[in-house]
Structure formats: C-alpha cells, structure tokens
Amino acid sequence: MVCQRAGLAEELQAEVGQKLDDPGQGCAARTFVAQPQSTAAMASSDFGDLSRGISFAPNVSSLSPLLARLDEEAKAARKRCDWVTANTKYTEAIATEHSTERYFNRALCRLELNLLEDALADARQVLTMDARSAKAYELMGQVYHFMQEGASGDEAVHMQLRAFDCFAAAYKLNPNRKVSKAAIESSDGEAHAFMRDMLSAQGSSWDTLNEEERQQLLDSQISKLALFSAHAQRQKQALDEARLAAKLARSEAQVNANKLQLLKVQMALVERHHTIPAHWDPMRDDDLVTYIVLATSSAEYKEVAHAFNATMEGKAHICEIHRLQSLHLWRQYELRLHKRQKEEARIRAHGKGAAVEEPKLERRWLFHGTDHATMHRIAQSGFNRDFCGKNATVLGRGVYFARDASYSSCATYSVPDGAGFQTMLACRVIVGAMCVGHSRMCTPEPRPDLDMLCDTSVDRLVDPTKFVAHHDAQAYPEYALRFVSGR
After folding, report:
1. Which fold does the domain 290-485 belong to in CATH?
2. pTM exceeds cut of 0.85
3. Bigger pLDDT: 63 vs 73
4. What CATH topology corresponds to 9-250?
5. How many helices (H) and strands (E) does the chain have?
6. I want to staple 48 with a disulfide (CB 3.0 to 4.6 A). Which of 53, 252, 403, 469 is the partner?
7. Nearest CA to 51 among 159, 124, 131, 146?
8. Mean pLDDT, the chain, whole residue set
9. pLDDT tens, 289-302?
C-alpha cells in the first residue's frame, strides 16, 4: 500500500495504522517467522510483509520540495525493491531534516540489505525521538531475530530473548500489533520463564527492569541458558525456511524481469533486421497503407504488367497499377519469411530431410482476384483465412492464389464494379513446402521425415497452378491492378 500525498493528515495516519495488515504485493521482503504451533500457523498472513507493510506517514505540511522529492524517490525505490537507492535517498533526506519516519523507513531498507547493526541503530534513534513507537520496538525484534540467524548456542538464545522483549514492548504499547502478538504467542516462553523464576527467587520482578537492566542480567546469567539452545535452533530453522521462501520469490521475480528484458532485446533485434524495400516511396510510420500509382513508363510498371499479360492473351487492358505500401503487413511477412529461411537452413545443415531451396521458398508473383472494396481491406489488414470459401475451397481452408492472371481475371474472382472495372492483386507468397490439397483440408499435411507441416496446398506437385496459403502472414499484397476485360 502506498500513501498518496494528498488529503488530510488524519487520513494518512489512519492508513498507516492499517499497513501492517496488508501483506503487500510485488517482491518478497524480510519477514519475521516465529516457531509455529502448526504448519497452518506458519503460513498465517499475520506476519505480513514487514519491509513494505508498515511505514510512517510523513507530515505533508512540513515537507519542502526537496524533501518531498527525496521521500517520493525513496518510496518508489522501495516499491521496486531497490533497497540501495531507497537507503541513499532516506540518508539524503535525514541529512536535511531528522524525522522518525525517515529513520524508520531507512531501517527497513537496511534490514533488507542485511545491515543489521545499522538497522538497529536507526530503530533506536526512532525510540530516542519517540519512546512510545510500537513500530520501532517491533522492528528491533525483527533485527534481533535476523541476528539470531548468524548466532549459535548461548548467543542465539541471547538474541532470541532480546527479540522477545522487543515484541513484548511493541505489543504492550499497541495490542493491535499483529506481528508482535504472533511472535509472543508462537514462542514457548521457556527462556523468559527461566529468567522470571530466577528473579522471583531473588525477590525481583522481570517486568520492572528496563532494557539495559535486562541486558546486564542476561549477560551475567547467559551460561545458564544453554539448555535453551535447542529452542534457538528450532527458531533458526523456521527462519531459514522463511528466508528460503523469500529468496525463491525474489528469484522468480528476477526471472520474470529477465524474461521481459530479453523480450525487449528480441523486439529491438527484430526492428533492426526489418528492412523497407528500396523502391518504396517515403511514407509516415502511422499510415496503415500508402497507395503509389506507378508511371506507365517505369521499369516497375512494365515488370508487373508483363507478368499480368503473360497469360491474358490480350483479353484485358490495364488501366492503372498501384504499389501497396503497408509497413506493418510487410514486417509480418518479412518476419515469417526470415523464420522459414532459418528453418530450411537448419534442415539442410542437419541433413534430416529434404529442404526447400531458398529461391523456391517465395513466389513473386501469384495472383488473387477480388473486388475493389475488399482490395482496400486486404491492403489495410492483410489476408484473412476466415473469409475462405467465398468462391471455392476445393483445395482446403485458406487464401487462394493462381499462377496465371488469366485464371484470377474471371468475373467470379475479379468482380467488376458498376463501371466494369476489375481488381486483381499481385502478391508475394511464401509457398515453401507443398502438398496436394483437398476440400476437407484445414491445415497442410506433415512434411515427410520432419516434425513440421507443409506451407501450402496445391492442385498438383509438378508445376502447380493453384496455391492455398494456410497462414495469414504468408502472403503480401504488393500490387493492385485495375483493369477491364475484353478491350
């Protein structure tokens, strides 16, 4: 939960009072886990996410612009688990203005960075400024538990007792402190029972001693507490398990972050490898499609017209030819072409099957008859297999192309408009590996000896005249021809 810096100070204080109950989201943070009475108790959310679950709310009215910026940067760094930056920002803010909330929040960061002595010093500074800060006592209890992790024997018991005292002080100041309450309830209390019994025999009261007096007493009697080392080891084991779970959670978050970064790198590589055909005219990146009318005297016009007229036998007259420049469709097509080129190269390298030679992978051009309105939709959004069957599906489900313009020029495919003009697309098509199609075919057949499908279905394998593309990005509509038949 992140406090917004707008609103009444009372609302901020009320929100802070609920922070401990929020287990937090995002990365895992250090969490005190006391010895549970049961497995279910150990999994209880009462322990929360201490490093992000509790925080002092700064007094909005007292913040200068510099301090407000530092506090916001520190808070943002904590949210993304950048503890080093957060620690630095809080240190800069403290150098400008001392406050309990900054010392406390810096202590949380230092706890995450395993700077336990520094975290303890900050928590004590908070108590110097506010002796009734239950959060500060609770944080000290947390620090002592992590100190116990690196200790053994008598020293581990020593740290355990100090942690217990801190949690007890926090609970006494604020019985609603769930972390402290859980720590007290989950402890078997054997060590404190021993000390209380000893003091009772001496006519003294444990509860009347302050922290320094308790420390002196523990130091003098520490050798007598060795019998509780087994309890300390149980506490340490529970703590180890909690830290392992937190580490795994952090690792998973890092893996996800690495995957995102890898995806960004891959996308950047894809962008770098995309090329724009050299003969294209300038266009804006946000244009879906740009129509370029070819000059009848240009070599480009003559090449396309020659391919169209090769089978028309003079039965049609070309009125105009448009080059269709669609950057997003071209990138989709180019990406699939590169993918297929690499796949065929791997097949050739490993010798596991018959690879398609690169010159035969792509056909330029195959023809697709359509009407004028549909041509614009294809130019903007590409081919769509969902519209297959509009004219025929004898070779299966997909987008149909013809080797010969004369086949696609019939009125069934190139539908005349009201003025008698017809439209045909000259397309680049990745024909790749081919198989003979049939009317019930939804996907092409598997390639022999290879764990992959063919690219296209055809009417015959030797010199095919009809082709069916089974992937929408498998064809690029490069030119639109407007023509009339019989003139």
Report:
1. Phosphoenolpyruvate Carboxykinase; domain 3 (3.90.228)
2. no
3. 73
4. 1.25.40
5. 18, 9
6. 53
7. 146
8. 76
9. 999 999 999 999 99
